[in-house]
Amino acid sequence: MPTVTASEYSKKIGLYQTVAQREPVVITSHGREETVLISADEYRRLTRRRRRPYLLEELPDEDWKAIEEAHAALKEQTDC
């Protein structure tokens, strides 16, 4: 995750907006992390997941995969 100063960000805003389409960009001020720039798609994905309950049959494939992987890892730990 790239980190830039607020001054550098303001000079090259277009560049960092392009980078944020691929990965978050941390913007610092006075040596401290102040802001994280993310794509609009990523923002929508993050906020949608927080607010929307799902019926099991509506659960996104990526969530099913994460549940299955967590279950397999837990099973592996308890089988040892």
Overview of this protein structure:
With 80 residues, the chain is α+β, with helices and mostly antiparallel strands. It has two domains: 3-38; 41-79. Helices cover 56% and strands 18% of the residues. The chain is built from four helices and three strands; from the N terminus they run βααββαα. Strands 1-2-3 form a three-stranded mixed sheet. The longest helix is centred in the C-terminal third of the chain and has 19 residues, at 61-79. The chain is elongated, with a radius of gyration of 18 Å.
> What's the pLDDT, averaged over the residues?
91
Helix- and strand-based class?
alpha+beta
Integer tally of domains: 2
Strand content: 15-25%
* First-to-last CA distance: 36 Å
**Order of neighbouring strands in the sheet with most strands:** 1-2-3
Rg (C-alpha, Å): 18 Å
Helix content: 55-70%
Strand count, sense and barrel status of the largest sheet are: 3 strands, mixed
Anisotropy-based shape: elongated
- What is the strand tally? 3
SSE sequence, one letter per element: EHHEEHH
Count of discrete alpha- or pi-helical segments spanning 4 or more residues: 4
Low-pLDDT stretches are none
Features:
elongated, single chain, 2 domains, 80 residues, 4 helices, 3 strands, alpha+beta
Element layout with pairings:
Blueprint (H helix, E strand, L loop, with lengths): L2 E3 H6 L1 H8 L4 E5 L2 E6 L2 H12 L9 H19 L1
Parallel strand pairs: 1-2
Antiparallel strand pairs: 2-3
Summarize the structure.
The protein is α+β, with helices and mostly antiparallel strands. It contains four helices and three strands; from the N terminus they run βααββαα. A three-stranded mixed beta sheet has the order 1-2-3.
